[in-house]
Amino acid sequence: MTIVGGLMYTNPWFTSILVTSMVPSPRKSLGALVEWFLQVRLKPVRKQPSPMPKGYSKLIFPQLFGQKRGRGKVVFVDLLSVLIEPIDVDARRKSFVGRVPDQLGNLSALLYLDLSYDGDDFSGNLFIENPEWISRLASLRRLNLNSVDFRSASNWLRALNALPHVREVELSSCYLGTLPRSLPHVNFTSLTRLDLGNNDFNSGIPDWLLNVTSLQYLYLAYNSLSVFLPAIAKLTSLRALDLSGNLFHRGFIPRALSDLCKLQSLQLSDTSINDSLVNLEVAFSGCLGFSLEELDLGSTRLGGSMRADWLGNMKNLKYLDLSENSLHGSVPDSLVNLSLLQYLDLSYNNLNGSIPEGLGQLKSLVYLFLSGNSVNLSEVHLANLSSLKYLDISFITSFLMESHDWTPPFQLISLGMAFCQVAPRPHFPVWLQTQKDLYYLDLRNAGIKETIPNWLPSSLGLLLLSNNEITGEVPQYLPNLIAMELSNNSFSGRLPPGISNTMPNLRLLDLSRNNLSGTVPLSICRIKYLEILGLFQNNLSGELPSCWKSSSLLQVLDASNNKLQGGIPDSLCNLQRLQSLHLSHNSLSGQVPFCLRRCTSLITLDLEHNKLIGSIPDWSKESLLKLKALSLSSNAFNGSIPQFSHLPSLQILDLSNNNLSGTIPRSFGNFRAMELSFHPDYNSDDEFWDDHMMLFMKGREYYGTDKSMTVFLVSENDASGEAIYNE
């Protein structure tokens, strides 16, 4: 669908879409971006990773230097010294780039090979075309190729099957494609550890796997496996089994695992068990219930009552995750029997009532997550949790502080109390001043009505206080902060003038929707690692500082709805990583810098409701290739409308309420962004497209950006013509 000047023109490809998806909704501020940043980029601690098996040490070859052992055989090797053909090194990610050379197969005495990439995006820079060279590593014991690209390779399983002595194989996130159903002969009978996770096989568990009876650690998570194989119980040596994130359309049968008497870790999160918790007793009442130390049943569509007393019989359990299910009722007293428990996650169920006071006797508990339930909590429940480090009670009914001078027995690293009303009065819990190691503090929507106390620990790295009624000035005494989210409060005064010195490590700073005044200080530009800056809807005045450098990491800048004046500084053009720029609803004047074409990462550019003049820049097609939303409305632009069809990703264009003249370019009918967004091969990985943009059409305000529409607004100008589609 394309909308021009408030009139609707429907693309024949998408007549079924129409405007039904375009409904008014509350305006988003930086909320979606902040949430993405906190969850994806900063990754606050939530789940404890499964421990590595004892004796397993990761050996990364670029750090080794030709060590020898025994009769002069090279068992550890400096990878750079054996490369016949060059491999580039990506200095930014400190990883190798290019094709893994087949000559590595000549190292027949090699014991350990690790070419894995440990980045957050699950994709490295190395790829393998022909895995045959792996089969020549006859002495290999451990192979780690996690995130090495196998898309051009075939017969990878046959190559592995030629390694009779290999004990550990890790091939997660390798784009392996298919998981062969059978093997003529299983040769790797020494294999104890196999990780094939995150390869999206979209098949079932293969039969040949059942013949590798030496397996102790098996990881098949997130592979779209459709059929569960009950015969997996034949792998009686298993100590760790991870089947998380698979489909199992034909049903998952937990009772098939009941005879795995050596199993210590069972990960089933994000699978569809689709049963009641009580009915799982048959699987965990036997030897499995005694051997398990880790049990993850989070997001498995479990329902029914939480009153499953069999849980209390798993005396060796150290890790229990039942989060994000539909369990109801109260937390059972039987959990008090799990004296070794270190990790307990019951968050986001339908639990209610009071927590058993005996929970406070679990002295080994390090992680406790109860968020998203209608439960009541007080310091009594935490009285003896001396090992507690991570506590999340966000979105619970209340946290009652019966004693004003309570001193907890623990030292927290992370505390989540968002949407949790602190009773009996809305204030910063005084006991927080005893927490000298606190790194993560989330008190969003907690009803706090006071100033930020000066005793908050200097150890804080993430401070989230949005949507309260906090007054006073923005704090500037927390030197270790990397994220400060203070939006939608009543802060006043000026921005800290020396913020780059007092909080030099900030990556996220959101002060939107407050009462801040004065100018934007030059020191903002000097915060070396800043990625998101939110100053939306304050009373800031003066000019934007002209101090931005190309070394800046800034990706989002929102200073809209202020009283800023002067021109748009040319130094903004240096921000090569900038994805979202919002300067709307100010009093900015002058022309739009043509050099913004250098901001090649831009996705959203919003300059509406200012006093900008001159012609609209005709950015060439080689520049803003990612731009999806451009709003220049309600300014004083003149001249003709440029050929915006050179911007291939553009979906929203608002030029309304200017002094533009001439005709609407006929090429407006050639926009392809909407068609691409629906093409099955089109994959947009732009991280900030969940952005906000306000549109006025026919007297109604519409908010948000919708991937199912293309909008062009040119009303209230002197332009004429209509959009034409090339069919």
From TrEMBL:
Q: Where is the protein situated, by its record's location annotation? A: Cell membrane
Q: What is this protein called?
A: (wild Malaysian banana) hypothetical protein
Q: Does the keyword Isomerase apply?
A: no
Q: Which GO terms describe its cellular component?
A: plasma membrane
Q: Which family does it belong to?
A: Belongs to the RLP family.
What Gene3D superfamilies does the record point to? Ribonuclease Inhibitor (3.80.10.10)
Q: Which SMART domains match?
A: LRR_TYP (SM00369)
Chief subcellular location = membrane
Q: Does this UniProt record's set of keywords contain Cytoplasm?
A: no
Q: Which UniProt keywords apply?
A: Cell membrane, Glycoprotein, Leucine-rich repeat, Membrane, Repeat, Signal, Transmembrane, Transmembrane helix
Q: Which InterPro entries match?
A: Leu-rich_rpt, Leu-rich_rpt_typical-subtyp, LRR_dom_sf, RLP23-like
Q: Name one Pfam family in it.
A: LRR_8
Q: How does it sit in the membrane?
A: Single-pass type I membrane protein
